[in-house]
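Morning F.,

Quick status update on the modeling queue. The single chain you submitted on Monday has been processed. Sequence for confirmation:
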Amino acid sequence: MRRLTFLLLCLFIGIGVATAQTMKVTGTVISSEDQQPVIGAAVVVKGTTIGTVTDFEGNFSLDVPRDAKTIFVSYVGLKTKEAPVSSVMNIIMDSDSKALDEVVVTAMGLSREKKSLGYALQEVKSEEITKAGQMSVANSLSGKVAGVQVTSQGGQVGASQNIVIRGNSSFGNNQPLIVVDGVPMTNDNAKGSSVILGSGLNDINTEDIESISVLKGGSAALYGMRAGNGVILITTKSGKKDKGITISYDGDITMDRIYNLPKLQNKYGQGYYGTEFDWKESGYTGSYQDFASNYGYSYKDGAGGGVNDNADESWGPRLDIGLQLPQYNSPVVDGVRQATPWVSHSNNIKDFFQTGLSTSHTIALTSTTEKSSTRASISYRDQQGTTPNTDQQRYAAALNTKMNFNKYLEFDLSANYVRTTSGNLPGTGYDGRNVLQSLLQWHGRQIDMADLKANWDQKDENGAYTHYNWQKEYAVNPYWVLNKNLNKYTRDRIYGKSSLWIKPTDWLKFEGRIGLDTYFSNQLSNVEWSVDYPDGYFRDYDRGTTEINADFIAYFNKQFGDFQVNALAGANYRDYKYYIKTIGADELTVPGLYTVANAKGSAIAEENHEARRSNSVYANASIGWKNQAYVDISIRNDWDSTIKDAFFYPSSALAGS
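Structure tokens below.
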């Protein structure tokens, strides 16, 4: 009794010590300027990585160490606040006058003072984009802009990202319009044969970005109906202000490890029946060992020839209690599969994954003279996934140049070429080519993953593959899938723009701009063998899009006494084309030969085209009074070839400092 009392006392003391290590801190963050809650403010414990963000009411809750002394609160446009830790904290943040006077890039590439804007705009500079070593532009935005939610479609190689600004507005596509150097860019999330091919944003090298501005609500009106979900403006780097030639190198190395896995039971192995409860309820008079062998599980061929050996679930005999059962990897003696220890492999899913390694290299040359500035860069990115034998490489070249011929004439060019390749992209969805779906949803807890890896390409005495696996009616060895049933992908993309500027006076200028975004891709998804396609399968997709945008814009910027007028008016022509061509077969005559001529039976041949054009006119005027009060008005009208009625988009805003 004394021993039990002592143990309970130790337990309670341990709980008390653990509880005492942290304390709950709650609080509210408001702005001193308008007494409104600050949404999305970062709250971080000084000297640690412990932090959170405020909700829509400006509230936050955080578990902090007992020895924590200080909390930092930061938000774009407000001065960072440092406050001592207490259980309840009410934090008031002041406006940052420096932030209010800063110049930001807005719609149509205009540079404006931030204080003159009557709408929401947040800008992220290049150092914030690149310092975390993210492989994609979308992921680099995560957590840096209030109201912007970035969701990756899985952490695997080539995964797409879904970007939503201020929540979903419809049941369909809610992603914002992407504009690079003033030209819209296609950001489709293409998919074929259960393979996600990556977002268009993945084609942009983060090291080539100068800044990213996020436009929300009425601020995006100048881009018309395509900007109903907001706009992400990307400005690429150009030459430096300092004269001369410089060469720079930037590189990143990132290692990825699986952060979290579902909690899985390790008490019962493969099967539908055979637990100790089943044994007792059945009235069987023999031992649990005999019951488990005769009624629970016994492997013969993995296709139902044994006792529940075609089961793809783990509700079978009890593990780790000394049972001996014939299993898929048990030795065969004189044609009889021997019984071996029935034990769990609690880390079999974790052991499947590997450490992912990503490297990125960029070399840039900049040249600046009195009349020109140029930046040219080449980059290479290599990504090896956490899923074995998945990879992606990206080769990119970029050129950005500006030339002043004289005080009346100016020219600029932004050109980018990107080649993305992969020897194997991972499968997705509820499909046999998605090894993660198979492993995490349907598998036996007794599986030895190292054994599957060592024998995935096993052959019999005749040289034929045995398709070695723990179960053969529904499942395929995951290492066979990743080494034989491949998803190869190549995409070549060219995007950029060229502008000619005419400046007759210092307050009036005209721009003629033409922008191009085009890509051509090929995807070959093949199955050499699977349960669903024992005679093979392949689909060969050719896809392409071309979008041309031509704009003519007049800019006006002049002071009239106490009033400053900044205005523009322009017209846009857009031409968009898309095509996809597919060939394939659901059965093959010769294994591993993926051609239409090798199709057994009818081949698959499909083709689809899409085209649309639009014409638009737009205008914007910003009138400021004594650099203190501003009124901003925007209008746009779109005529689209696919919609009968025209679309008119007005917007107005007031701002003051």
